[in-house]
Amino acid sequence: MKNINSNVKDLKVYNGCLIVVDMINGFVREGMLHDEAIGNKVERQIELIKDAKNAGKLIMFIKDTHDKDAAEFDRFGNLPHCVRGTSEAELIDELKPFEWGINTVSIEKNSTSFIEAPKFREWIELLQNVNEFDIVGCCSDICVFEGTIGLANYLDQWNRHHTIRIHEDAIATYDEENRKNYVEAAKLLGEQHGIQYVKNYKIGKEN
Questions:
Q1: Residue-wise pLDDT tens digits, 100-110
Q2: H/E segment holding residue 107
Q3: pLDDT, tens digit, for every residue of 18-72?
Q4: Residues 62, 9, 158, 55: what is their CA dihedral angle, to the nearest 10 degrees?
Q5: pTM score, two decimals?
Q6: Could you say which of 3.40.50.800, 3.90.550.10, 3.40.50.850, 3.20.20.80 is the CATH number of the domain covering 11-198?
């Protein structure tokens, strides 16, 4: 695989993966779609990142990264965000120290679903022994939800038995107080698809 992180081990050693979705400045610190309340989940996310590192899991950082004329902007009402080359498309400062550490990889996406990112598809095809996925990040009802459902469907297509957990104490969405219906609907549909929603879960240990 081109541009593979040199700190990543032989891919066959991994049986689990933590996916950190869109914890970037454009959703947390700046720009028209940011909501600083999402930052309240960072402490818990860091706990889970450290747990995953200690357990030898692969960690994927997904970063919304768009060209200036991205089709998605039109679909969501001309809301340009996280444009390539701007600070909006970078991980928030608290997570940057982990981005290129041992057992980590950083992947850009141009849609609301990380499963559609070509680089993610390359990785997931090679990670044949990974059967447990833990998901954190934002936004609960859009990028987290759509990427997770897409991942489940992809794994089903190739008969890869799996467990997927969304950590409720480590996800958030923008303007959450006014979007409760969307968040609740996403959880309901996720559970219908066999996704586990968990709290106070420690990666790498029996719970």
A1: 888 999 999 99
A2: strand 104-109
A3: 999 999 999 999 988 899 999 999 999 999 999 999 999 999 999 999 888 877 7
A4: -80
A5: 0.93
A6: 3.40.50.850
Average pLDDT over all residues of the chain: 91
Sheet holding 16-21, edge to edge: 104-109, 58-64, 16-21, 132-138, 163-172, 196-198
Decide if 54 contacts 46 (C-beta within 8 A).
no
∠ Cα 95 99 103 (to 5°): 125
**Torsion angle in degrees (nearest 10) through CA of 105, 106, 107, 113:** 90
Closest CA relative to residue 60, chosen from 93, 107, 112: 107
Find, among 91, 101, 96, 97, the residue nearest to 8 by Cα.
101
